[in-house]
Amino acid sequence: MQVQPHDFVWINSLDDLPVETLPEWVISQWNKQLPLVVRREAAAENKLTVGIRGIKPSQRFVTQIDKLSITHIMDVASLVSNSRELQRSMFIALPPVQVLLLLSQHNWPWTWAVTGSCAYTLVTDIQSMLSDGDLDVVIRCPTPHQKEDFAEFAIKANTPLCRIDIHVETPKGGFSLAEWFKNDEVTLHTPRGDVMTADPWDINL
Hints:
Shape: globular
Strand content: 25-35%
Largest sheet: 5 strands, antiparallel
Number of strands: 11
Strand order of the largest sheet: 4-3-2-1-5
Distance between the termini: 24 Å
Helix content: 10-25%
Order of helices and strands: EHEEEEHHEHEHEEHEE
């Protein structure tokens, strides 16, 4: 089973979650049709760290599930792989989805994906993103790249439609593209915590 940070996974029921630690809003709002968001944090053996989203922005809960309890996995890159599907979305009029449509019409030399509240909205048909909210995307780059390699993507994404937060995912963790453009070193978010590095692909990290 291959899952990556930001992907969505589904489980059968609340019984697959550590019920004794769940906040009341999870018990009252969550159901098995709603996905869990894969997180980067390290987990116990045969476990996966996931996030549960509620109706309100403040309703976020992180926990671990057994990998064997997963019934379905969705790679969030699939949400932007087909511009025609985006055009048919019931949320196409919202600015973040308009930006996704623009980006999806280019052939980029890497896999990229939508994440955050926009991805959750597209998957669930529950509008959890604000029309004036930030759009979160991730570029997945298993091999080393230079800053300038990402310039065209950043330029295309920089529209007046909405603010965009671009992260780059390496085998070692994820980092903010905007931060990397501004600095010689960048904060790399790894499964075991944040580290500062000039090379986010450093095999020794």
